[in-house]
Design brief:
This protein is an alpha/beta fold. The protein contains 6 helices and 15 strands. Helix 1 runs parallel beside helix 4. The chain is globular.
Length: 230
């Protein structure tokens, strides 16, 4: 870790990846700042649950010494996966493995984010910092944010998706639309609002296939998260 000793490291994006990386770097003594466009940690609902795999998400949390906190907050009830056709006919279903080889336990994005945020040093995350542009300034990177704030970093890491403003420092190639759109939403009180789909869920994640369109659903602590993909 000598390469990062004394370096100012900026991570753009305060999602699970960016926060996990910040935790791991701080454990190694690095000076890290995370810049997140949300105005606060409670600014919005964090979306549907995630299933973490042994060789990726769970391994990262173990390295970050957060395994105990994860198991205290995981959703043991989200243990099923159900596949249907467009008419709701069940084509396949199976239980997710929560322990043992190949386990893939689920956790809500909100609690996962809280675990990661609480593990970081005070002041690590800079809220309301949407990156507008970036440029090299000598051997450093100068970051310009929409709120007028600027920051210098020795190392800048884009953890805010394919459209990251840091991308232009590496390549002129921009992401292209591949013809697939995803819309996500939350249905509160879903048992009353969408009783037929609620009955299909039964504690599972639901994926319904119909031609080129997919509808996915999963239970959350505040309702049902759903998405459509065309």
């Amino acid at each position: 870790m000598r390469a990062i000793h004394g370096k100012k490291i900026a991570i753009i994006g305060g999602g699970p990846r960016g926060l996990t990386l910040a935790r791991l770097l701080q454990q190694s003594g690095a000076q890290v700042s995370v810049y997140e466009r949300d105005q606060s940690r409670s600014a919005r609902v964090q979306g549907s649950a995630l299933d973490l795999h042994e060789d990726s998400g769970l391994a990262a949390l173990e390295a970050a010494s957060l395994t105990e906190a994860f198991w205290a907050n995981h959703r043991s009830d989200l243990d099923g996966l159900r596949l249907t056709d467009s008419n709701g006919t069940v084509l396949h279903e199976h239980l997710r493995r929560m322990s043992g080889p190949g386990k893939r336990p689920e956790i809500e994005r909100g609690p996962l984010r809280d675990i990661l945020l609480d593990s970081l040093q005070s002041g690590t995350v800079q809220w309301d910092c949407k990156l507008e542009s970036s440029e090299f300034q000598g051997e450093q990177v100068l970051l310009h944010f929409a709120n007028g704030h600027t920051a210098l970093a020795d190392i800048a890491i884009g953890s805010d998706g394919a459209n990251s403003r840091l991308r232009e420092l590496v390549t002129p190639v921009r992401p292209g639309y591949v013809g697939v759109s995803l819309v996500e939403g939350l249905v509160p009180e879903a048992e009353q609002a969408i009783p037929e789909l609620w009955g299909l869920l039964k504690g599972s994640a639901l994926i319904a296939l119909g031609g080129k369109r997919t509808i996915g659903m999963g239970r959350s602590q505040t309702g049902v998260c759903c998405f459509t993909r065309d």
